[in-house]
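From the methods appendix. Each design record in this collection lists the tokenized structure first, followed by the designed amino acid sequence. Records were kept in a plain field format so they could be parsed without special tools. The example shown here is representative of the layout used throughout.

RECORD:
FOLD TOKENS (329 positions):
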């Protein structure tokens, strides 16, 4: 069986949680959905001897259909299974991508899996102990251990921490009945405060059905999808916003970013150029334009954008990361 164990620091969500004094660890985004995928990384994963996985040779650069078991030590020092990816792709060398994702402009990963194939256990359900090993990858060879872990992940039917929006919520409407459109917005805000994204989405869907000519209804829905990093779905919604309000500068700007986030960099470049012409001092937009230039094969132009914004804000973590990426660091 193709299986890989990886020991990482203990966290609750693995979606970038940190504070003003400390950045998330290398594994800190391992369960953050990005347009339908999880991107896993951590200490010791810069280069993997994937030939240790069953059926892989020393010349293979990646292996597919791997069960990746994430483990972490709790406060008592006990190593527990905290989650897993099924049907994952594991790379021999770390992958680095320049992205328009504001959380991770430079995305580094060695493991990739569809979000629907990942599961993060709630802290109180991280009960299954596993042998102790140092932070990093571990290639288990004991057949009984592999069999037991595979059976556990296959049969698990309990709660999970990683949130994915139910596809039905994209179109289903709330059953609530209000006399005023604003009441659906207010109720959606209540749901969002409780992280009930599906119910909030249904409120906006109902508002759209009642007032399809009101751009704000689409904009609110799109903002949820954007925050959940569901870029393909958000793109379609923001197209509706711009169609209804052609002079909505912010919506046009976000639509441009979404074009880039879904791979249409030419359309993204045009949208960002239009926005920057009216907002030449927006350093974030200038940095994003540099990222787009990089993906269009205009590397020197990208470096110029990065240097320009870094000169203005040398303490900005995003700009520092872009400068380092451009320098090959």
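DESIGN:
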């Amino acid at each position: 069986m193709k299986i890989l164990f990886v020991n990482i620091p203990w966290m609750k969500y693995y979606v970038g949680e940190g504070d003003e004094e400390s950045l998330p660890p290398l594994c800190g985004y391992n369960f953050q959905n990005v347009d339908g995928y999880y991107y896993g990384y951590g200490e010791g994963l810069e280069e993997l001897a994937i030939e240790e996985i069953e059926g892989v040779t020393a010349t293979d650069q990646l292996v597919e259909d791997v069960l990746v078991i994430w483990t972490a030590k709790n406060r008592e020092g006990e190593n527990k299974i905290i989650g897993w990816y099924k049907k994952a792709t594991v790379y021999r060398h770390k992958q680095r991508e320049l992205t328009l994702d504001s959380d991770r402009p430079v995305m580094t990963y060695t493991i990739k899996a569809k979000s629907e194939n990942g599961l993060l256990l709630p802290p109180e359900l991280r009960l299954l102990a596993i042998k102790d090993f140092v932070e990093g990858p571990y290639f288990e060879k004991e057949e009984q251990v592999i069999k037991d872990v595979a059976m556990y992940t296959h049969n698990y039917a309990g709660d999970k921490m990683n949130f994915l929006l139910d596809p039905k919520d994209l179109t289903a409407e709330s059953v609530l009945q209000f006399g005023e459109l604003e009441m659906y917005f207010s109720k959606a805000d209540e749901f969002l405060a409780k992280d009930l994204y599906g119910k909030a989405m249904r409120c906006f869907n109902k508002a759209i059905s009642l007032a399809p000519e009101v751009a704000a209804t689409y904009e609110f829905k799109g903002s949820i999808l954007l925050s959940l990093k569901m870029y393909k779905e958000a793109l379609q919604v923001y197209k509706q916003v711009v169609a209804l309000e052609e002079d909505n500068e912010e919506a046009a700007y976000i639509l441009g970013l979404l074009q880039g986030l879904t791979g249409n960099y030419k359309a993204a470049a045009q949208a960002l150029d239009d926005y920057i012409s009216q907002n030449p001092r927006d350093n974030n937009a200038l940095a994003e334009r540099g990222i787009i230039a990089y993906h269009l094969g205009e590397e020197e132009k990208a470096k110029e954008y990065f240097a320009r914004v870094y000169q203005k804000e040398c303490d900005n973590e995003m700009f520092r990361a872009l400068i380092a990426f451009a320098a090959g660091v």
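APPENDIX NOTE: Residues 33 and 163 are 8 Å apart (CA to CA).
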